[in-house]
């Protein structure tokens, strides 16, 4: 991973640049990193606040030979790689809130957006975008984010070298990705579960189709969250906002 890194000062979105590089056929493992994004995108068409000088705004291009419906597994794998890197470099112990929010003390420090290009049922390329709040102070966040977002600096009291974090994340990702390609999702799932805060808790999942409330009993092999409702039905959730009760 990261043998070719495109570093840009300012872009609209690293996802957009990575998508066009993927269309041009660049090799697997190509990375796009920007100091600032003017139109950073989050899940569910939300904006992602990406100011200059403080965060890691990065998109990775990979080309696994997997069917489309298993790509959520790669989002979970990326979350594990980032948690491991943060644990390796800092004293922090982040948690993962399904599917891919990395939280510290109940506030979001990392978001992951996985987008794919596919033909029929087969993946052509996967663009994994990661937004990591590294060196923002509380007052650097817009007011509406201050109560829900945090940064590694806020949680540790010191600033961190972004390049070193990127390097550690890429190394962690590379080793988990080769584990995934050789042994499948099972070992990744076990690691993910060890960091998950959403499991065995009562929660509300807000999906585009409606709201599901119940106990999170696990994740399925395709990365979906399994919720047991109060009438004992098992609902499979692929995309939602989660509120822990
Ligand atoms: C989320 O909603 O939690 C996902 C946020 C993903 C943000 C990252 S920043 C780098 C890449 N470029 C984007 O426009 N979005 C992703």
TrEMBL record:
GO terms for molecular function: biotin--[biotin carboxyl-carrier protein] ligase activity. Acts both as a biotin--[acetyl-CoA-carboxylase] ligase and a repressor. The chain holds residues 82 to 326 of 326 of the full protein. It comes from the Bacteria. The keyword Nucleotide-binding applies. This is Bifunctional ligase/repressor BirA. Its EC number is 6.3.4.15. Biotin binds at residues 37, 41-43, 108. Keywords: ATP-binding, Biotin, DNA-binding, Ligase, Nucleotide-binding, Repressor, Transcription, Transcription regulation. The keyword Isomerase does not apply. It catalyses: biotin + L-lysyl-[protein] + ATP = N(6)-biotinyl-L-lysyl-[protein] + AMP + diphosphate + H(+). The lineage of its organism: Bacteria, Bacillati, Bacillota, Bacilli, Bacillales. Residues 1-181 form the BPL/LPL catalytic domain. Belongs to the biotin--protein ligase family.
